[in-house]
Amino acid sequence: xxxxxxxxxxxxxxxxxxxxxxxxxxxxxxxxxxxxxxxxxxxxxxxxxxxxxxxxxxxxxxxxxxxxxxxxxxxxxxxxxxxxxxxxxxxxxxxxxxxxxxxxxxxxxxxxxxxxxxxxxxx
Amino acid sequence: xxxxxxxxxxxxxxxxxxxxxxxxxxxxxxxxxxxxxxxxxxxxxxxxxxxxxxxxxxxxxxxxxxxxxxxxxxxxxxxxxxxxxxxxxxxxxxxx
Amino acid sequence: xxxxxxxxxxxxxxxxxxxxxxxxxxxxxxxxxxxxxxxxxxxxxxxxxxxxxxxxxxxxxxxxxxxxxxxxxxxxxxxxxxxxxxxxxxxxxxxxxxxxxxxxxxxxxxxxxxxxxxxxxxxxxxxxxxxxxxxxxxxxxxxxxxxxxxxxxxxxxxxxxxxxxxxxxxxxxxxxxxxxxxxxxxxxxxxxxxxxxxxxxxxxxxxxxxxxxxxxxxxxxxxxxxxxxxxxxxxxxxxxxxxxxxxxxxxxxxxxxxxxxxxxxxxxxxxxxxxxxxxxxxxxxxxxxxxxxxxxxxxxxxxxxxxxxxxxxxxxxxxxxxxxxxxxxxxxxxxxxxxxxxxxxxxxxxxxxxxxxxxxxxxxxxxxxxxxxxxxxxxxxxxxxxxxxxxxxxxxxxxxxxxxxxxxxxxxxxxxxxxxxxxxxxxxxxxxxxxxxxxxxxxxxxxxxxxxxxxxxxxxxxxxxxxxxxxxxxxxxxxxxxxxxxxxxxxxxxxxxxxxxxxxxxxxxxxxxxxxxxxxxxxxxxxxxxxxxxxxxxxxxxxxxxxxxxxxxxxxxxxxxxxxxxxxxxxxxxxxxxxxxxxxxxxxxxxxxxxxxxxxxxxxxxxxxxxxxxxxxxxxxxxxxxxxxxxxxxxxxxxxxxxxxxxx
Lengths: 123, 96, 648
Known about the structure:
- The complex is a heterotrimer.
- Chain A is mostly beta strands.
- Chain A has one helix spanning 2-19; strands at residues 23-27, 39-51, 59-64, 73-77, 90-98, 101-109.
- Helix content of chain A is 15%, strand content 38%.
- Chain A is elongated, with a radius of gyration of 17 Å.
- Chain A starts with a helix and ends in a 14-residue tail after the last strand.
- Helices cover 81% and strands 0% of the residues of chain B.
- Chain C has 21 helices and ten strands.
- Chains B and C meet through helix 1, helix 2 and helix 3 of B and helix 1, helix 2, helix 6, helix 10 and helix 16 of C.
């Protein structure tokens, strides 16, 4: 009886997450191309960082894969810039592709050092 | 140098502690329970469970969680169960 | 000195392996002296680990930069307290802390229980020994805190945002919790290995489980508070994998704490309890694996190192071990009694368990979803907050309700009549509260209103229990002292109710507004007027500190300072400003200094009703757990007498 309950609960999750459209893809700059809709993009910030996240044209920088060589993806960010953001840091962005640029409205940072139990900022 | 000495001391102390029981000669008996004792342990647990259930019922009645009607209905079977458990345990202990 | 540390860890490894092997052999062959020897090895293992820990601690305090670890995580200007807290700031040190707590707990458990049956303890030793051996192995061969280098002039330092009291308290407390779950697991495994599958292992470990659960729970509240005031995004829980890593075992342990009550009274649910305790332990280790391996993108993640593979292997091996044990002992574990009625306290406990485990699995699914999608779909996908919120409501709200019904429903078989009679006051209060809340505008969030109404219901049941009990016994202190488990439990329930109210208020009824303000300008959020007065600049030893001064008027009044620190290392960190209004039930006005533009500032203001109840709940939780934990001399005597009687 218990096993049945557990199994049915698990089935509910499976269905919910698979069909409910509640998940978004986790991507890197190297495999971003072609993905439509809202996705989560993680990479390393490459300067120069220009613009203003609060202005219409947004904060502009480039993103590349954290490890290895990859093409640069231009980023346009509008929103709150998290603590620890700067060139060379790893960030995670939520947004979508618009043409060749990635337009994002949410950004979080990761601590760059080896150990990290650093709680990081969410914007 | 001190590190070496301390390290050696540590290793020696560890070995000593581990070897100690072989020299104390406490005996090999692991206090394992035989079948008879296991059965008695089960009877003791039955008794304790029955008495605890009765005690809980009394408490719940006293604080008013269980009203008189329900109390009267429940206390009989619980008392019987406790009596049976006590009897069974008694029988087992007097058997020896 | 690093040599001593390394040597001590090697000795620990040797002792742990000995405890595992000799202990197993001794328990199998029933050789008492070998069993004692293995037990001594476990105790000695704690001491040698302690020596390794002392070596590291001294190196940290003395700024010995010949230690790679010390150089990586501290700097000369770091105060002693924070230098010490760097002990658990990195991979190797935190592993050492884990081993220290594990061997400490293990040694204590076997020493305290030596009057208990030796042949149960005989199996506990090798289980704890084997687990310790794994951690010692990792510390010796994979991730050593005692790597040396040519002494650096100064160390890399501790990130400024980690230099706060939370860093001192939060990780050790969580470890006391995580590692603590090993003990009931070891006793459960020992009971299956020895064939004594009755309740004695539960009785022996009840307080251990409760203590571990208490530390894990309070540690999470500490972490949430840290996130709230320091990380400063306005929330306190992000459903981050590392946060979830602590939540999952805690939920499993909560289920376990409840279902053992059924096993103690009715001898039921024995297989279920074995599964639960193993689940709690595995989730604790799995959580550790998640944190260390960086396998999931998490803002907390440690570096991606080979250690992940070792931990995964360990989780798999221990899970298989538990499964095999349970399947092997299934005949012995089968219950003798069955559930009599779907409307009974036993059933209520069962529903509580099902809901808790369902919630636990929900979180687990969310955590491993990115890994599974990557494996099976080729593309890693992540699940967002709405998923967790949805299931938290679906499972959490009924759980909340059950908290009120459970203690009042009768054992074995409850009649609807009796149930309604006992619940009439709580139901009445809940209905009135619900109506009042809706009239006051709380209807804007349906789950919020439901949470509040259920909370009123449960709180009334708890109050009624205390009132009735006090009336019957005369004094509330006597009542609690004589029934520690029950009333300690009620206090803990009360803390959960406070938690629910706080969470509901702070999330369902929160108001947020972002606006750019010039000096002198105001913005109004939910009846609170926030006026930007000016900027203050200060220079501390580590940073340039900018603070915006804001005044509050309207629903609440006061002054808030919110700003940003620009550290000389180049990092910036926002320092949020929080104003708490206790007269409004602990409501916070939370101001984030988003961005400066000339003399103007973009602010984000959040009004979070009742959020401080969450932190209060943490202390109530602690108090209730301590009451339930408190040693009972009578109980100890009874246990000893029971064994003596069995022996005849």
